[in-house]
Amino acid sequence: MTDTSTTAATAATAALALNTPRRFYRGGERILAFRGLEVPDGFDGHRPEDWVGSTARLFAEGGGGVTTLEGGTELPEAFDADPLGWFGEGHAARFGGDPNLLTKLLDSGERLPVHSHPSREFATAHLDCDHGKTEAWIVLVAEPGATVWVGFRDELSPDELAGLVDAQDERLLAALNPIEVTAGDAVLVPAGQPHAIGEGVLILELQEPTDFSVMLEHQRFGLDLEHAFLGLDRPLALRSVDHGPVDSARIASLRRRWSDVEGSGPALPDEASAYFRAEVVRPVTGDVTVDAAYAAVVVVSGAGTLTSGHGTREVRAGDVLLVPHAAGDVTVSGDVTLIRCMPPQA
């Protein structure tokens, strides 16, 4: 019988098609524009996320989200067939075919609800999963005055938090730290921190590979309680939420300007590296060669080439690629900026 599995070698540097499962909130047109695609006839306005290199599925809303490679192989199957080729020896020995990473493009066509994500420890204890959902936002496009919110400004007691969740009004958002963002900003959001993303932002999001969200604000989005609280009793779900306070110094430690990087360098605060890595590559003064690594690569601007052991590939703004460890070192050339989204160092 012929082996038709997709290995790292057969995938080489794989261009990824759009993967936009339907979600409860609006958005998606900025993703299409970024990727150089027309808005299709019948676009329903509820395709706000492009799941890149995904082995995860939606917790609710139909369960889609897994990436399918050209040829029809689902990504978990491809990774399991060749973890060494995709991820290299260290990662494969520690994690097997688990990428430990989900990358997304996210377009907030409206303000997202106030919500939080469980930690690894909470997910292991209560959700039968080794991954929580620490995440990071790399801002690619932001309308003037665009705002995100992270962490409660003041410490809340369990009863105070429960009261805000019961009320389902604007006091929940008002309790958070507002952060005005522009293109070039990056924000790390540790698991447990309540947060929201305002309307008018296109972000490149790195996260642990789950769709676990505790929807503190759920009524105005029509979410049922089973979805809102991950199938858990509300008091237990709320135990996953950090009650604050998060002060200005802590907020500053969670921020970085990724657009300041020239040559190559990290897009995110150092704290993120325990969960994932994001490397900006911008060959301003000459070609830049980066080490072999599994990476979801998003070309942010310009045009150029990627040269590896698999040959040379032309890339341009809006391209989204998977590059396996087996490709070896990659040389980036041209007037181009790209971001390599990678798992934690094994």
Total helical elements: 11
Number of strands: 17
Q: State the shape.
A: globular
CA-based gyration radius: 20 Å
Q: List segments where confidence is low: pLDDT < 50 over at least 5 consecutive residues.
A: none
Q: Considering DSSP H and I runs of 4 or more, what fraction of the residues is helical? A: 10-25%
Order of helices and strands: HEHEHHHEHEEHHEEEEHHHEEEEEEEE
Rounded mean pLDDT score: 96
Q: Per DSSP, what share of the residues sits in E-state strands of 2 or more residues? A: 25-35%
Care to describe what's here?
The protein is α+β, with helices and mostly antiparallel strands. It has helices spanning 8-11, 29-34, 75-81, 83-87, 89-95, 120-126, 158-167, 171-174, 225-228, 234-238, 248-253, and strands at residues 14-15, 49-52, 102-107, 135-142, 147-152, 176-180, 185-189, 195-197, 201-207, 255-257, 263-266, 277-282, 288-290, 295-308, 311-316, 320-323, 330-342. The strands form three sheets. Strands 1, 11, 12, 13, 14, 15, 16 and 17 form an eight-stranded antiparallel sheet that branches. Strands 2-3-9-4-7-10 form a six-stranded antiparallel sheet. The chain has a three-stranded antiparallel sheet with strand order 6-5-8. The protein starts with 7 loop residues before the first helix and ends with a strand. The model has no long low-confidence stretch (mean pLDDT 96).
Q: Any key phrases for this structure?
A:
globular, single chain, eight-stranded antiparallel beta sheet
Task: Annotate the secondary structure layout.
Elements: H1 8-11, E1 14-15, H2 29-34, E2 49-52, H3 75-81, H4 83-87, H5 89-95, E3 102-107, H6 120-126, E4 135-142, E5 147-152, H7 158-167, H8 171-174, E6 176-180, E7 185-189, E8 195-197, E9 201-207, H9 225-228, H10 234-238, H11 248-253, E10 255-257, E11 263-266, E12 277-282, E13 288-290, E14 295-308, E15 311-316, E16 320-323, E17 330-342
